[in-house]
Amino acid sequence: MLKAYAASTSAEEIAGGTVSQLEGLVDLIFEKIPLMIAGAIVVFLSYLVAKIARNIVENKMSEKGIGEEHKELQILAGRMTYSGILVLGATIGLKIAGIDLTTIIAAVAFGIGFALKDLIMNFLAGIMILLGGQIALGDFIQIGDTIGKVVEIQSRVTILKALDGTKVIVPNADLFTKQVVSFTSNPFRRIEVDVGVEYRSDLENVVKVCMKALKTTEGVLIEPQPAILVSEFGGSSIDLKVRAWVNSRDGWVKIRSDLMKNITTQFNNYGITIPWPIRTVVEDKDQDYTEKKLEEEIVKEAAKTTPVVTATMQVQPAAVPVQANDEQPLKPLGEKHI
Description:
Low-confidence stretches: 310-315, 322-328, 330-338
Mean pLDDT: 75
Structural class: alpha+beta
Order of helices and strands: HHHHEEEEHEEHEEHH
Radius of gyration: 50 Å
CATH architecture of the largest domain: Orthogonal Bundle
Number of strands: 8
Distance between the termini: 201 Å
Number of helices: 8
């Protein structure tokens, strides 16, 4: 009997404690709801203020004379203003809602180390691209096999307009870490056209005709000076390289096309032929084929230049008879004549 009474008493105490805890939780929620609403309102207002402040900063910088060539600085300033105000407003709103920022910061740091690694890398790369100024809006660049015009630099990606009009989205980290070729960063760009002429052509005249084509093509600059180089003895032609300089933002693809058409027209006017590929066909492979040996020619040349050595005959001196003098007989050497 006592055990049953004790069991019922403990059950009632547990039930009473649970009810009191639920009542406390409900009271806490009702107490926190106004704070949460106030915090959400602060975050929303900070979002609106951040957008307005970004527009104001960009407009002010535009009024001070920042043109299209420095538009990336205007974008960077507006973006930093927007991010700063939004982060500050979110921090204040969370504080009002009673949320402990320490736990949130730890969670964000953990996410940055894993899931948000690529996002943060692209964001930082975008800031470095804008600050460095190596790539600007309107530049014509190539990254990998993609060629296009830079139309927008966002916080995470850069938007290119390809040659065929398609939209290409490139992560900022790729632009920051990989090799990028810019066709418009320098004021001038050199174009090159390869052309071949017959071996019978007068090369001096060919060079003059090519120079005339360069001077009469619209868009080709006189300074820096164009150049025409004889580059190779090809299989069926003598090959030349026609090099010219153009403004990098004037549509160098079209200028190169116009130059090729002008070279063809000038060659036709002056009777210069661009030959077809030439092949030599051998009818009989067993036909006698003789070559002049270099060694034979060397021997003949040596024979012509070798001095001729003639044998010299030794002529014995003729014996001269000595006639004795009757009046003065010969005496041995050393004797005196008496």
